[in-house]
Amino acid sequence: AQSVTQLGSHVSVSEGALVLLRCNYSSSVPPYLFWYVQYPNQGLQLLLKYTSAATLVKGINGFEAEFKKSETSFHLTKPSAHMSDAAEYFCAVSDGSSGDKLTFGTGTRLAVRP
Amino acid sequence: EAQVTQNPRYLITVTGKKLTVTCSQNMNHEYMSWYRQDPGLGLRQIYYSMNVEVTDKGDVPEGYKVSRKEKRNFPLILESPSPNQTSLYFCASSPHGSRGLNNEQFFGPGTRLTVL
Fold first, then answer.
1. Please, what sign has the CA dihedral across residues A107, A111, B3, B7?
2. What are the E-state strand segments in chain B?
3. Which of A42, B15, B27, B115 sits 20 to 30 Å CA-CA off A113?
């Protein structure tokens, strides 16, 4: 069975500050890992995904995540927050046991203060 | 434009009145899935389909039905809705249902359902 834990349901940062959203996973097989973003009243949009080709993954809008197998983590970072980054962020894992089934974390709502 | 569409976007109904939420994708994807999103619980998979006429239960299938008669469509059916099915529903699709292809899932805009 696979699972995802996102620490912190709400994170608030100042504009220009570092964004760090935490994600830890468990999986019985090498996982595929994803970060999705959900803007208000919209569907989910893929930010980035871990394909096992490189441990540091770069995504859209300046976000990146590092896969650390020893820590079973896939934290999302962005060096400098922008007001437009305010959204809810979901980490998800897939181990292929049911096709492309994604198991999601509970989400982290990011607020950006002016 | 490649997309997943859902209808309706908003629906208020009453307990026991059958309803269908439609989902359609124009990307020729094999894999389609339904999720529900609830505060504090993230998204949970209801049903999925690996291809036409192939469907299976996800984590929370009780009270729902699906069908996959055509590749592009994957309707979600609530035959007797109850208030605990009040939620935000997302349909998603991806190119293949096979492990190893690391497929991105494309999500529809969501359907907000309220059951009174």
1. positive
2. 4-7, 10-13, 19-25, 31-38, 42-51, 54-57, 65-66, 76-78, 87-94, 106-107, 111-115
3. A42
Model confidence over B57-116: pLDDT tens digits? 999 999 999 999 999 999 999 999 999 999 999 999 988 755 555 578 899 999 999 999
Task: Report the amino acid identity of residue B94.
Answer: S
Chain B partners of A92 at a C-beta cutoff of 8 Å? 43
Q: Distance from A28 to chain B by nearest Cα, in Å?
A: 14
Asked whether the beta carbons of residue B50 and residue A99 sit closer than 8 angstroms, the reply is: yes
Q: Which residues of A touch B35 (CB under 8 A)?
A: 104
Of B50, B53, B62, B64, nearest to B20 by C-alpha is B64
